[in-house]
Write a structure and sequence with these properties.
364 residues, 14 helices, five-stranded mixed beta sheet, six-stranded mixed beta sheet
Length: 364
C-alpha cells in the first residue's frame, strides 16, 4: 500500500488530496479545500490536514509555482524559493507552507514546471518563463491516467491537449507518447478570466512600469466591468447569455482565445488525437461549456477522471505523482513523464537586460 498526498495552490483555493492504492485500486481517502487567502494567513492548516489522516504518509507533492528540479523539500535553497515565485527577498506564502511541512519530517517533494522538462524542446523555452506551472504538470499526469483508463492503453500511447481554464489564468499542455512536449502558461495565453494573458508590447510600454499585479489582472472580468472589478464569472456568463454587448464581446474574445491556444499546441506538435481535456472552474459553467463546444466542434471535449472527488485536478494529479515517485501503482505514468530528468533554471533561455538582472539579484 502507498498512501500519497498532493497539494494544489490555486488563485482561489488550496486543495489537498490523499490517495490509497491498496490492492492496486487507487482510492481517494481525503479531500479538503481551503481558500488561498486563508492558507496564506495560516500555512499550518496544510500540515494539520495531512496529519488528520492519522496514519503514516509515504509521499507528498507540494506546489512549486514556476518550478525547480525534482527535489526533496529539505534540499531546497533560497535560490529555489526565488525561482518558484520569482519574488526577490523570499517569504512567499508558498515558501511558508513548504517550511511548515519541512518541520514535520514528512517525505515531501517539489516537482518541475513544464519549462524544466527534457521532453520540451529547447527552442520552445526561448524568452519564456511560463510554459505551465508545476500544477499543470500534475493535471497532465491525471490526463494520462484518464486516457489510459478510458482506452486501456499504456502511458506511452496517450496523446491529448489539456486546457486548464481557471478562475484567473488559462493554461494549455500538449502531451504525446505520455510526455509533456509543449505548454502555454497563464501569462502567455490569450485572455484569462482574471488575468490579461499575453501582453501587447505597445500596451506594456504605454503602461510604463509593468508589475506582477499588472500581469495577473486586467482579464475578462475587468474588461466586462469596465475596470470596476465587481463582477463574478457567473454574472459575466448571465450577462453574455442575455445579450449584453460588452459581456458578449468579452466572452467571445475569451472563448476564441482558448481556440487559438489549443490550435497552436496541436499544429506545432502534430498532435493527431482529437481528445481535448477540459479542467478548471470555467468549463463547469454551462454558458462557457456550450460556447467552447460550439467553437471546438472538431474535438472530443472530455473531463478528467477525478476518482469520485470534487477536488481540483491539479491536487489529484499531485497525489498521482507522489504515489509514482515512491513506486506505487502510478509509477509507469511518473517514470514516463521524465520528472527525474528535469534540469536547468526557470530563467534559462531568457534575455534580461542588466537593469532587470540587478533588480532581482541576478548580477553575474
Amino acid at each position: 500500500m502507498v498512501l500519497s498526498v498532493g497539494v494544489d495552490q490555486g488563485s482561489v483555493s488550496y486543495d489537498i488530496v490523499a490517495i490509497d492504492d491498496s490492492n492496486g485500486e487507487p482510492k481517494i481517502v481525503l479531500e479538503k479545500s481551503f481558500s488561498t487567502k486563508f492558507v496564506k494567513e495560516r500555512p499550518s492548516v496544510v500540515v494539520d490536514t495531512i496529519f488528520s489522516l492519522g496514519v503514516k504518509i509515504d509521499s507528498l507533492v507540494l506546489p512549486s509555482g514556476f518550478g525547480t528540479r525534482l527535489k526533496h523539500i529539505w534540499e531546497l535553497t533560497s535560490e529555489d524559493f526565488f525561482e518558484m515565485s520569482l519574488k526577490p527577498g523570499g517569504g512567499s506564502s508558498l515558501e511558508r507552507v513548504i517550511q511548515a511541512v519541512k518541520n514535520t519530517g514528512v517525505n515531501a517533494y517539489v516537482i518541475p514546471a513544464v519549462k524544466h522538462l527534457p521532453t520540451v524542446p529547447a527552442h520552445r523555452k526561448l524568452n519564456r518563463v511560463d510554459l505551465g506551472t508545476s500544477d499543470k504538470v500534475c493535471a497532465a499526469a491525471l490526463g494520462v491516467y484518464t486516457q489510459m483508463k478510458n482506452k486501456s492503453i499504456t502511458p506511452e500511447e496517450t496523446e491529448f491537449v489539456l486546457a486548464e481554464l481557471g478562475s484567473s489564468f488559462n493554461a494549455f499542455i500538449g502531451v504525446k507518447n505520455g510526455k509533456i512536449v509543449d505548454g502555454v502558461g497563464g501569462t502567455n495565453s490569450w485572455l484569462g478570466i482574471g488575468s490579461r494573458g499575453c501582453v501587447d508590447g505597445e500596451v506594456a510600454a504605454l503602461m510604463g512600469e509593468f508589475s506582477k499585479d499588472d500581469a495577473y489582472s486586467g482579464g475578462a472580468l475587468y474588461l466586462a466591468s469596465a475596470g470596476n472589478g465587481n463582477m463574478s464569472v457567473e454574472e459575466l456568463a448571465v450577462y453574455a447569455e442575455q445579450g449584453h454587448e460588452r459581456a458578449r464581446l468579452v466572452c467571445e474574445a475569451y472563448v476564441e482565445g482558448v481556440v487559438k491556444d489549443v490550435s497552436a499546441i496541436i499544429a506545432a506538435n502534430g498532435i493527431s488525437s482529437t481528445e481535448l481535456f477540459l479542467s478548471g472552474r470555467i468549463p463547469r459553467i454551462s454558458y462557457f461549456n456550450e460556447a467552447l463546444r460550439s467553437k471546438l466542434r472538431g474535438y472530443t471535449l472530455l473531463g478528467m477522471d477525478r476518482m469520485g472527488s470534487v477536488a481540483k485536478e491539479g491536487a489529484i494529479g499531485a497525489a498521482i505523482i507522489a504515489n509514482g515517485l515512491v513506486g506505487g501503482v502510478f509509477k509507469p505514468i511518473v517514470d514516463n513523464l521524465s520528472l527525474d530528468k528535469a534540469a536547468g533554471h526557470v530563467l534559462d533561455y531568457v534575455h534580461l537586460p542588466p537593469k532587470a538582472r540587478s533588480r532581482v539579484g541576478l548580477l553575474d
